[in-house]
Amino acid sequence: MAAIVSIPEDSDFPLANIPFGVISTANNVSDISFIAISESIYCDVNIVAELIHIQPEKRCATRIGDHVVDLAAVAALGLFDGPKLKTEATRVFAQPTLNEFMRLGRAAWQEARAKLQTVLAAPSTSASVHTALVPLAATTVHLPAHIGDYTDFYSSREHAFNVGVMFRGRDNALQPNYLRLPVGYHGRASSIVLSGTSLSRPCGLIQDPVSKDVFFSESKKLDYELETAFFIGAGNSLGDPIAIDNAEDHIFGMVLMNDWSARDIQAFEYVPLGPFLGKNFGTTISPWIVTLDALEPFRVPQPIQDPAPAAYLKPGIRDAYDIQLHATLTPKHSSKKYMLSKTNFKYLYWTMKQQLAHHTVNGCNMLPGDLLGSGTISGPDPTSLGSLLEASLNGKQDVILSADGSVTRRFIEDGDSLSITGKCEKVINGKRIRIGFGVCEGTILPAKKFEFNK
Amino acid sequence: MAAIVSIPEDSDFPLANIPFGVISTANNVSDISFIAISESIYCDVNIVAELIHIQPEKRCATRIGDHVVDLAAVAALGLFDGPKLKTEATRVFAQPTLNEFMRLGRAAWQEARAKLQTVLAAPSTSASVHTALVPLAATTVHLPAHIGDYTDFYSSREHAFNVGVMFRGRDNALQPNYLRLPVGYHGRASSIVLSGTSLSRPCGLIQDPVSKDVFFSESKKLDYELETAFFIGAGNSLGDPIAIDNAEDHIFGMVLMNDWSARDIQAFEYVPLGPFLGKNFGTTISPWIVTLDALEPFRVPQPIQDPAPAAYLKPGIRDAYDIQLHATLTPKHSSKKYMLSKTNFKYLYWTMKQQLAHHTVNGCNMLPGDLLGSGTISGPDPTSLGSLLEASLNGKQDVILSADGSVTRRFIEDGDSLSITGKCEKVINGKRIRIGFGVCEGTILPAKKFEFNK
């Protein structure tokens, strides 16, 4: 499918993707009066934008190749003419977050994606759609949604086992609940940041494992966690669970996530109520939400679940997705990306449908924009571990990153950048299809000095 | 201090209180055009309201006795003429939540309280303020804030000890971290409901403690937790901790809270990541936020902390408040309130200042409207236990509620209503002062039938 702009062959964002996000531009090229004037004229937005002077406003967008498509502009052109969006598109896409679009439900998301695939294809059904195109470099990308609540699961059996072996030995590695339900906990929504945001190394109380002394320090065991997460689209009322057979209709789409973790702070604080300051100093997500409809060709069977889950968690046949996930580390003053992990979403023991059905089975209510994380995704072999905790055996051995062995890590050092990428690839009818997620990147800055008692 | 309306002697809401909340009325008597017309005329709002027809709109309010004072109306009258509110009052008090007012900071909250105490006193400095008065019975009270994130602490040493003894024995009752830092966890913000909201008994996976069988069931161990919680006013930026000496300036005020808990669901799920479905089906708060300024006369020393906390948690001299807290149970079809607990906020081992300093010491950011709970507040004697878990020794003994022993509970039964009340009382200069919180009430409905696989 050719598009109205050239899309690089290895792009994560072909017309088959159509992810959703939020952007702003220095000058609001999606301003309705401007669009009306320029309809059916192809504009170089970088030049034209200088002619108008409006405060940058966030609005919804999709991405094709290295261009962004301003959905508020597409809506202003009247191109969303289907039954679900005709009366809603102008309102929902002009919002500073995707929450109102998410609330409309899956039929509306499918209608938007299909329409965009038509008008952005070459030849397009709309000449004027060119006016909604902005080069990515001319935009600022923002958090795609207001995240009311954020939950993180622990759904990689390999990860849970590896961590369990370290702390409880092989025989008791998995807790009794692990194979019965998708264990999860509430995370902190306020500190979820967009890819590209730097975070300061956190400080907290740490216990010396030998002397048992407790002291205040910057974290010496700062780690990443390679995760994905999904956004809730339409929610449910308090008291009314989401049945697993309906769960996919409530899932708007997926992003990549790095659940930064201070292992030493976490180790002292987490009994009995779970992770807290070891996690809530920052969580990074990628900006473009990839829909389940885009991922549909990449469905694969999930791992066999034994014992069989309870009825409310009854799995389907192919509830996993074959998403290749890579994590790399770039040291300060370096441009090299050293591979940390090559893993895959399909390894997860518990599926997104099961996570959502479980989360609501007690009546807990979801709202559009809520975020549910997978937990660290580790695979079966040593190259597929999704955290340094596992790769360095909690700091007991070097993880060798460079071929010559000169670059090693046990945990993250100041100035390190972590990048997570994800993509699906498949040959369908002799043609390679690729759907990607872009990048989830963040850099760790040195701990801030802070005067506690003023 | 006499007020412009009669305030019952035992009211929680004298002029010395001035709590903040959110209300709506069937007809918006605070409509600005209406106020302008009626200025300086005393109106019976119940009669006049019928003459105007506007959609009910939420707006900010305070309460005196059995009347509500519509702050949007007070602002429209131009009565907030101080430096912090003069240009902001009309905007912030017309909002459907208190978040924008909270964001202004403590000087603005103090200015609002002082001004309201002046104009609502008899003789008032403003005749027109009568037009902002609404009888409580003519209003609907709403959640006072948009709660972005909700955290619950575990700060009652007595509660932690009692629970610890049950599950680990007396010698290991308190975890090693307990006396070092205020243990807490992230809760679910979406399911926080206002006093008066009924909740359905939750269902989930439960493990038989003897056979170890795991089965799906409605909770058989549904419990309440008597708590208080405080709202964040002005927040902090990600990466910048709040120093304990500044913490009070970030605390907008307090409410009562019932952290409903399904002990059997919680027991199976909570290792290693903490409480989840056992808690997130519902949390009830009282509607009127009582400021720290109103509570100032009731400051008392907090418990002695040994070992001395880390520098960032350094306590003041009188960081606790003498707030008497009662929990009562009313069975279905009964009007009797049986006493469950008489406890006090002052028993808490960790103070609100310490909770907030701890929560942000790693750089975690707070936003206006975030809610931080105390954890169950138990006192030193058997009548001051803040949960049925403790009073019934996890269901092993009856808790006798009625004098004749005919009404007992081990856990909450369908149809039971739980009420929490709180008040401060003191004689100052020969006059009794009382500051109260109103009520935090909720009823448990039978579990809903749900078809899991459609």
Automatic annotation (TrEMBL), chains A, B:
Domain Fumarylacetoacetase-like C-terminal residue range list: 151-429
Any one Pfam family match given in the protein's UniProt record, by short name: FAA_hydrolase
Residues reported in the UniProt entry to bind substrate: Y154, R168, Q266, Y270, T376
Catalytic-site annotation from UniProt: H159
EC number(s) reported in the record: 3.7.1.2
Cofactor field: Mg(2+); Ca(2+)
Family membership noted in the UniProt record: Belongs to the FAH family.
Family matches, as NCBIfam families: fum_ac_acetase
Name of the protein in question: Fumarylacetoacetase
Native species: Physocladia obscura
Species classification: Eukaryota, Fungi, Fungi incertae sedis, Chytridiomycota, Chytridiomycota incertae sedis
